Amino acid sequence: DEPEGAMVQAEYSKGANQCMACHREGREEAAHEIFLTPMGISDSENSPFADGRHDCETCHGPSNSHRSRQEDGSRPLPGITFNNKTPVAAQNEICMACHDDSTMMHWPGSTHEEEEVACASCHEVHAPRDPALDKLAQQEKCFSCHPRTRSETFRASSHPLRFGEMTCTDCHNPHNGNNDFLLVNSNVNDTCYSCHAEKRGPFLWEHAPVSEDCTLCHNAHGSNHGALLNQRSPLLCQQCHAPGGHASTGYTTDLAEDSFQQRFMLGRSCSNCHAQVHGSNHPSGVSLTR
Amino acid sequence: QAQDTDPAIYSCAQCVGYTGWRGILDFGLGYVSDDSLRFGDYRGLEEEGFYAALDGDVHYRNLQGRYFDLYARDLGYDSRQLTMRGGNQDRYELRFGWQEIPQYRGYGTQTPFLGVGSDNLTLPPDWVYSSNTRGMTALESSLSAAFLKTRRKILDAGGTVKFARNWSFKADFQQQKKDGTRALGAGLYFNNSTILPAAIDYTTNQLDMSLAWSGKRGQVQLGFVGSYFDNGKTSMTWANPFASMPEHQAFRAAMEPDNEFYKFNLSGAFAVTPRIHLSGQAATGRLTQDDTFLPYTINPRYSDLPLPRSSLDGKLDTSTYNLSGKLFARLNHGFSFTARAKLDERDNKTPVDIYTQVSTDLFPTVNRYNRPYSYEREQYSADLRYRAHRVIRLSGGAVQNNMDRTLQAVERSEETTLWGEVKVNPVASTQVRFKLDSSNRDVSDYDQANDGSLPDHPLMRKYNQADRDRERAQIDLDFAPSEDFGINLSFFNAESEYTKSEVGLQESNDQSYSVNLNYAAGKKVNLYAFWTQDDIDAELINTPSTMANSWLGKTRDRITTLGLGLSARINEKSSVGFDYISADSKGDISVQTSNEEEPFSPLRTDLTNARVHYDHEINEHWGYKLYAEYEKYDSRDWIIDGLGVDGISSVLTMGDESPEYEVWYFRVQASYRF
Fold it and tell me: Using CA atoms, how far apart are residues B244 and B129, in angstroms rounded to an integer?
């Protein structure tokens, strides 16, 4: 569809010949690398350079005036610029005119759409490899708006984002509007199980919070404590367990020196014994020790 | 489109037609200065010495839209990655990927057990049994290093076919294999426990298929996911280092059982008008698990106790129904309204039976019913956004989260969240965003589940089922005085108070400050810096009994992260880059009983990482890349430091130590470009 607004009235130039005369290789504003991308394949029926389309101006809008100079020597801007000179909605409308397949079906009304995130904030369509599709470069795009998450990836325990072994889109779909936290699956646990299927069970002896929500105990982005745990045990466990006896004792610095009490707080703490904390399939394993 | 345009006018003589093969291959050597398992974590560079440094990417394009892309990274390391894809961009694509992820799960770990890697751990023939670790006099001579290393190998293969203009079919297969050794606590013998090097042998095969249709006003997708988990080690048997009597000499634990999961899903979206969009998805699936049970105990005296069934026949159905609608109305100014409804259900149909518990493998004790938990989540939300003026946008909304659980203390919880946001753009270069939300969770009567276990203190409220008030605030300032330079300041604060919990988690607070700077001088120089400080606090109350005084536990984690770097193009042939990261954390824990207590020594981690690289092109085809990385890590953790394997008299551990290292990594690569 043609973009709306004033540019409909504007005039198209005579194709990419005009644009590439200035935006050729070696220039500061070179745009020739678009021909290394799927967008630049003119024989492709979906390309902006396909017959019957307007080449660069398919996306940038009618921009003939951009070839001239104004009184102050500057050039008028192209019809659409993919920066803060063009409203985000107008930019995204251009992209969505072609990228309207099923992968984008939940974009309208999604968090990023409603927060007025421009497609071009994350995607670089002129680059031979869009950074949004590169494991390490993609993170930098996400972190530019989610700085705390970058900090979390450097914590003592974290998923291996900073090593490029995982990336944000392994768990999140930035175009999705229907799942909590833009997750790739409908809930937290199903997302975690895609790599941690061994914790899926169902176990004979379930640990109720495990089957409810992994984030009750873990911070998926990173933690100061081992195994991405939100807190150190035994305190983590004692937030929910108070049956009396060793599970409810306040373990102080004095007790850390006590040879009988040490086993409840040092080493792996509660997991010294209750190691099957995600569930046990042993008939005698109700206390999650085997 | 431009049907009225003469295509001949638009033929582009200056457009560059890239055809054929191109790419870059980097090959050379890397050198690691010191052994460090922690430095090798995820990198695969744990040992001092030389490594083959092989990277590259290869591409093919033709003017008809045929393409092939290959990306290879770290092929000479245990963290190698390879991805390929190719096809015709209008018709089909084939994909292939291979990835290995090494991970270390403990540092300085040792064990006296023999048979590490198998599912049967034995002790040396001259082992000296003792009821406490200090009496195990053969321990020191029996110890050998036991690396807690796992390796995940991921194979991906798939393809997409586009046909009949609006239709596409996609199928992807993934196999994840994870093997290695982990530490497993095994506390079966009275007061004693043993930390075992337990073997891991997981395989998960997943098939993901979808058929999609896209039209001018809508899309529909029908999908299937099948995921099959297989554990090559279904049990673990180990010799008891504390006693050698026949009934105590070995124990056995069940490892994670095999399971199967499949799900069908249907997604769709429809633009009722250009201003009204509806989208939704529905999914239904089933998870099953039916591994044969182990006997109640390995102790021959009770091993023939009859089980109620030979396997669990575990079965749970999952379903998700999700509908969202957006109405966008342009009045005088932008106005949009979005409403969503979601239902997520876990219906656990696993049969319930009575199982005898054989305590410490010696005493048949209580009979217990298994408790297959089910839940149902409902979420309803409505958001309103109104651009009152070019410079200001007002937003607000409400979210209702309801949850029903079975077999737990609280049957139903209801949480209402109200939020509001103001976004101001006084000029194009500046944006301020201020968001507040407030939520209140009410739960039905708290009735402790009578599951046969020791009941909790009557005033305990598990925090996921407790009444809670939560307030959150977020402020973001984005300032870009020029196209080259941008500053972002962020503040986030969340405070949760568990209002009716006299025992259990009382409150938790989470606060974060961030500053980000970016400067890009054209395409030649890019500078960045960021600083983040996070503070995470929590308080809990617990008590050893209804008659005893309660105690107060306080935790505080402070993490400070600083990063800065630059990348610059020196000239047409050379570029350089530098990155620096410092991430320090401090974890304070104190537990106050009736007497004032000393806080524990702070938990500390200090990470410093610096990287520099220099790339140079000698001629059209050849060049070289130089890379150096320095990383220093220091950590302190009183929970494990200094214990060794026998530091706890009743627990034979693996002697974990807090990692500490200082490592240089150098890499020299020749680059061949074609």
Answer: 7
pLDDT digits (tens, 9 = 90+) for A2-55: 444 444 457 888 788 888 888 888 887 888 889 988 888 888 888 898 888 888
Do residues B330 and B299 touch, judged by C-beta distance below 8 A?
no
Strands B235-239 and B120-121: parallel
B356 three-class SS:
strand
Residue B180: φ, ψ to 5°: 135, -150
Please say whether the beta carbons of B298 and B331 come within 8 A.
no
Q: Is the dihedral of CA A209, A215, A219, A221 positive or negative?
A: positive
Q: CA A41, CA A47: separation in Å to the nearest integer?
A: 6
Residues 232-271 of B with CB under 8 A from A: 251-254, 256-257, 259, 261, 267-269, 271
* Cα dihedral B239, B240, B241, B247 sign: negative
- CB-based contact, B319 to chain A, within 8 Å: no
Best of B256, B316, B541 to substitute, by most chain A Cβ atoms within 10 angstroms, is B256
The whole-angstrom distance between A71's CA and the closest CA on chain B is: 22
ipTM: 0.94
pLDDT in tens, B395-429: 999 999 999 999 999 999 999 999 999 999 998 88
B343-364 core/surface letters (b: 16 or more CB in 10 A; e: else): bbbbebebeebebbbbebbbee
Claim: this prediction has a pTM higher than 0.90: yes
Counting beta carbons within 10 angstroms of the beta carbon of residue B632, is it exposed (0 to 12), middle (13 to 18) or buried (19 or more)? Answer: middle
Tokens of B305: 């106790």
Neighbours of B8 (CB within 10 A): 8
Residue from A151, A162, A216 to probe the interface with B (highest B Cβ count within 10 Å): A151
Residues whose CB falls within 8 Å of the CB of residue A202, separated by 6 or more in sequence, listed in order: A211, A279, B259, B287, B289, B312, B314, B315, B316, B348, B350, B372
Q: Is A280 exposed, middle or buried (0-12, 13-18, 19+ CB in 10 A)?
A: buried
